[in-house]
Amino acid sequence: MAARVALRGSAILRTIRPAACSLPRESRRQFSFSAANMSSFYSWEPEGPTIKTQIPGPKAKAQIAELDEVFDTRSLNMLTDYEKSSGNYIADPDGNVLLDVYAQIASIPIGYNNPVLRKAAQGDEMINGLINRPALGNFPPNDWANVLKTGILKVAPKGLNQVFTAMAGSDANETAYKAAFMWRRQHERGGHHVEFTEAEMASAMRNELPAGSSELSIMSFKTAFHGRLFGSLSTTRSKPIHKLDIPAFDWPQATFPLLKYPLDQHAEENAAAEAASLKEVEDIILNYRVPPCAVVVEPIQSEGGDNHASPAFFQGLRALTRKHNVLLIVDEVQTGVGATGKFWAHEHWNLQDPPDMVTFSKKAQTAGYYFGSPELRPNKPYRQFNTWMGDPARALLFRAIVGEIERLDLVNNTARVGDYLYGKLEALAQKYPGQFENLRGKGMGTFIAFDSPRRDEFLARAKGFGVNIGGSGQSAVRLRPMLIFEEKHADILLAALEKIVTSW
Ligand SMILES: Cc1ncc(COP(=O)(O)O)c(C=O)c1O
Fold this sequence. Notes:
single chain, 4-stranded antiparallel sheet, Aspartate Aminotransferase, domain 2, Aspartate Aminotransferase, domain 1, Aminotrans_3, 4-aminobutyrate:2-oxoglutarate transaminase activity, aminotransferase, 15 helices, PyrdxlP-dep_Trfase
């Protein structure tokens, strides 16, 4: 592979000292990783984790206290030194360096301080995008078509050739929902060309519907997460804490088919759960008091606990939405950009009829929704509009990321490493019954998760063993490594996981 670099040293041993006071005596044994752990994609990352203090250490504690005077730190996971973070490794102010398989909530694609991205950031094009930020709807740069075609649209899902750019995942979903409502109403009026009536315009200004028309909704699934803005939050159903006190729309939710593992031992039950869920979807489409004009679904429910469903389920969902003229919005904010071993997770479903819209953000660094039908462009300008409508600098960054993903074949890398990691996790689960339950994500790249009986403690202790891991839902440990995660990183992770469960 052209990008592989000659690596320094051949038998360097890196010693990891688990955070001394936070761990039981038994686990304080040192463990080591060999030079084989060095990244073969880039030469700039460390050979392994280094743990020097408890996390947070003394410096981090002082800086957190200072920060807390002016900024809410109650959700803080780890105070980070981004200058010292590199590749798959995240650093803190006390000199601790952790293998990061959480990656800024699944949003770092090709490593901290990636040299190719640093170079792109210093180019005139990027500087221009940063300091002359355009109001894209009104004053797009003269090369905007080219930036889109060589970046965001170069990796557009099959069948979708247009994009509406946005700022973040919630914004991407929210604007997709607006497109769905406008699409449906245009149909009801008799097409794009039909003008709004005076009554419609007057009632819109009173936040009311014109006499005789009924509300529409967006259907989502129980335990889904689609963001936290007003519209997106109404489709989010993962945790009450996200929703408390916030006004919400009367929108329906269907049961997501929570599968039982191992899959091969529960095939019948799982197929029945999926069939029941599809039946519920159809019932909601036909009978809910506020009829849905779109269904939004994550290919793998991520924040809600890493819940998977089979390609057959999603094929069924596509067929149902098509049958009832309801749009299908696939939320690939977390699953998109390579992590499942395909560029877009919904490619695993082999749909003949593509989703109507696919939303993206996180690893793309930019955000938005892809669509194919020209009818999804609203009938008038300014109906779907903001000052910025995205960000050319972030679009340029995504273009550079796409370039690296292609150059290093990182989607296939993730598929291969994911299979390797999954196989080893299966063995760990057998060796330590009850510790790695409901292992899921087979064949889905590194988008892997399992349940831990002591999940929060598991995540906290992981740091002492040199890895930064995230959770999802009530009990899942979710692995969200970057696309430059290799077998050698998987070995470090696996050694740490074993340490965690043998040192309770
Ligand atoms: C599937 C999914 N959709 C939407 C969002 C919201 O994205 P953001 O936090 O960028 O608004 C998230 C965030 O975790 C997500 O996982």
